Structures are given as C-alpha cells and as structure tokens.
Amino acid sequence: MMGERTGVQETLFYGFSLEQHVPDNHLLRSIDRLIDLSGIREHLRPFYSTMGRPSIDPELLIRMLLIGYCMGIRSERRLCEEVHLNLAYRWFCQLGLDGTVPDHSTFSKNRHGRFRESNLLREVFEMTVRRCIETGLVGGEGFAVDASLIRADANRLRAVPGDEGLPPDATGRAVKEYLAVLDDAAFGASTPVVPKRLSPTDPAARYSAATPNQAFFSYSTNYLIDLRHAVIVDVEATTSVRQAEVTAQRRMIERVQQTFGLWPERLAADGAYGDAANLAWLVEDRGIEPHIPVFDKSARNDGTFARSDFTFDHENDFYICPGGHQLRTSNRNFTTPRSRVDKDGFIRYRARVKDCSECEFRQRCTPNTPARKIMRSVHEGARDMARDIAQTDAYVTSRRQRKKIEMLFAHLKRILKLDRLRLRGPNGARDEFLLAATAQNLRKMAKLMPLISLQRAT
C-alpha cells in the first residue's frame, strides 16, 4: 500500500544532537579521537596581541584545514562552504548548528603571519608522528626515503629564459621567497646549473622534464617513512633536482634523530641517493646501513675490462689488473708529499706504460691509451659496503618495502588531490606538504588503530 504523509502540524520544539548524527565509523570521528590540539593556543600565545578583540580560535582553523586535506578539498572557499553545510564537518570543528564559519581570507592572513612565524604546521605534523610512536605504529629500525614532483602554480607559457634572470618588474611574495632561498642547499644553492626557464610568478619552482609528459614547473615533496606501517616521520620541500633531494634526506634524518630519538638501522632508497658522498655520510657519520643501489659509472660497453675486473689490495693500496700488474697512485717518490685526492674526491691509480705495452690483454684493457687508469673514490669503503648489502636477502626485502613510499605518493595525488600546488613560493609548498603528510598520517592511524587494539585485546 502506498504511504502518504498526513502530518501538517509543525513541531513547536526540536531536539537535535550533532553527536547522534555522526556515524561511529566516520573517518573524522576516528581522527578526533587521535588528535589533541589543546596545545595550539599556548604555542601561538606569543604571536597574538594582548589587546583588541578576541580572534578566531586557531584550533578551529587547524581543524578546518585538516578536513580539507583529509577529504581532498583543495579550495579554501569551497572548504568554508562544505563546513557550513556538512554536519560531520561541523561536529569535528566543534561549531554546533549555529556556529559561524570563518571567512576564507582568514586562512591566508594567519598562514602568512603567525602560522609561519611560529612553525605551527610542523608542530601539528610532529604531533601526529609522536602519536604514531606512542601507539606502536613506528618501529624505528628501517626507514625509506624518496621524492615526488608536484606541479607548481606557474604557467609554463609565461616563462622566461633562465640565463636572462627575472624581469625587472617581477614582484610578489613568491619572488621575495625565491631571493631568500638562493643560498639554501635545498633550493638555489643545490646545483650551479642555471635553470633552462624561470617562472616570473614562482621563480623557486624548477622547470622539469623528468616525466614523459610535457615539461612543467614543480617542487619536490620529500618523504622519510618508517617501513613498519609506512608512517611518514618527516617531510621536506625542495626544488626538483637530485642534489636538493639528497640534502633533504640528510636534513630529515638529522631532524628525526633530534626530535624523536629515532636512529634507524637501515635506509632504503633508489639510485638517486647512491652517490659516494651520501653513502659515506650514512655509513660513517650516522651508522646506517645503505640499502641503496650504488651510483656507479665504471661499467663499460665496448668489451674492455671494467673496474670490477681489477682486484684492490687494501693492505698495500694498489689495484691488480687481470694481467697481474699493479696500478698505483704514483710510480715515483716525491720529496714533497702530494695530495692524491682530486677536487671531486677521487684517487687515480695508474699502471706503468711498460707493463701495459707488453701485456697480452692490452687490446681488452686499454687499446687507446698508453696505460690503464682506475678512479677510486675516497668513500669507496661505503660504496663497497652498499654493494655487499645488495647481495643479501635483507636488501631484497628492503627493495620490496620501498614500494610503500610510492604508494603514499599515489595516495597523495589521487586521493588527497595534491597533484598541483595551490600556494606559491617555497613557504607555500612547505605548508601544503606538511598538511598533506599530517592528513596521511591521521588517515593511517584511523585505519590501523582499531586493528592494533583488536590484536592487543586478543
């Protein structure tokens, strides 16, 4: 039988509770149990005036930003509209039914001012990491590091040649930030190579053709993750070049050790982090096993002997060629000792011309030069250690686990919709990357905490 509404009398009084209308399994309800933002006001107290009207509660702004990044709402205008209409968002922001949603311009005012001055967004991110450590989601034995390119808010068609520099009329917040980081190893000082093109609107963004698609301006988000549950333990924004990403890896490892006391036993990464200086820093300075492919160009494709065909005698400091002859750093005795290391950190080992001219393997060893020469890095010990680790089963495991960081980047771009930056300049990129990493950690905890609680109960 077809039903029909018969009541026409409106109820005089309504009883409505937001608490009852937010499902127990809602993502924001799980996140709300995991975060404690009560310390935000005390953290920001020195950055507020003691006079004037009360400001908008900074905890409300942070809660709204977390909603935006957790739910993939990229526009702050749209975020304000969604919080105004969505009951679950209102509940998470503690607004009630009649609470006023702040204007979107409030975010920009606080971001460019007290949020950056107080480093609040990093404080919120580190709060999630501490929570993950307390709940046992972070093992601390194995880390992985990698970087991913994120498109900058810069039009490639308006770019200018890099060797000409910025036009005289280029102004704005992003230009000032670009000038401020010219000497930063993660941005302007990362490489002496002049960029091919510069963006007048966001000059710190790097013109990159690293993907098969059309070249674009980008920043790099660098993740350092714990391999147990792929929790992001640190994040850093850099320009999109390899040297800057290696610098970010060192900064993140140092910061994690100082902030959380985490000293990993091994680090998994791809070949971009396998240069000799970085491997030596990991092994000699930090005592970390590098589960990293060695960046090595000694292989040959012309059929002649490669460096791996030569045997190094550590005790006597010379190479032995396949013909049984010695390659030494010098075949003469100098009265004044000379440095054997060149400016690039390599030592040259040379064979005698006489030995090479009479050797039966000359055509397979050095057909175009009078004597064979071998280049050995001063950090070759760390490189040898990385090569030895690459032959173990633990390396195979690390190589498989390293895919977790790629999954995080895919989640960042496809689910959180951070495939293009909305803010400009290094500070804008840093803010967005910190908030996105915070959202990913919170979503991770909301997913895993019920499972861990169940395991502990059983």
Describe the protein.
With 458 residues, the chain is α+β, with helices and mostly antiparallel strands. The chain is 40% helix and 13% strand. It has helices at residues 18-21, 27-34, 40-44, 58-70, 76-85, 87-92, 105-117, 120-134, 173-180, 242-260, 276-285, 353-357, 362-365, 380-389, 393-401, 403-414, 425-457; strands at residues 142-151, 160-161, 197-198, 206-208, 216-226, 231-239, 266-268, 289-291, 311-313, 318-320, 326-327, 346-350, 373-377. The strands form four sheets. Strands 1, 4, 5, 6, 7 and 8 form a six-stranded mixed β-sheet that branches. Helix 2 (27-34) crosses helix 17, helix 4 crosses helix 17 (425-457) and helix 11 crosses helix 14 (380-389). The longest helix has 33 residues, at 425-457. The chain is elongated, with a radius of gyration of 29 Å. The chain starts with 17 loop residues before the first helix and ends with a helix. The relative contact order is 0.13. The mean pLDDT is 88.
Major β-sheet profile: 6 strands, mixed
What shape does the CA trace take? Answer: elongated
Q: Give the SSE order as H and E letters.
A: HHHHHHHHEEHEEEEHEHEEEEEHHEHHHH
Low-pLDDT segments, ≥5 res: none
Percent range for β-strand residues:
5-15%
Number of strands: 13
Q: What percentage of residues falls in helices of 4 or more residues?
A: 40-55%
User: Distance between termini?
Assistant: 50 Å
Structure class: alpha+beta
Q: Could you tell me the mean pLDDT?
A: 88
The quaternary organization reads as: single chain
Radius of gyration: 29 Å
Number of helices: 17
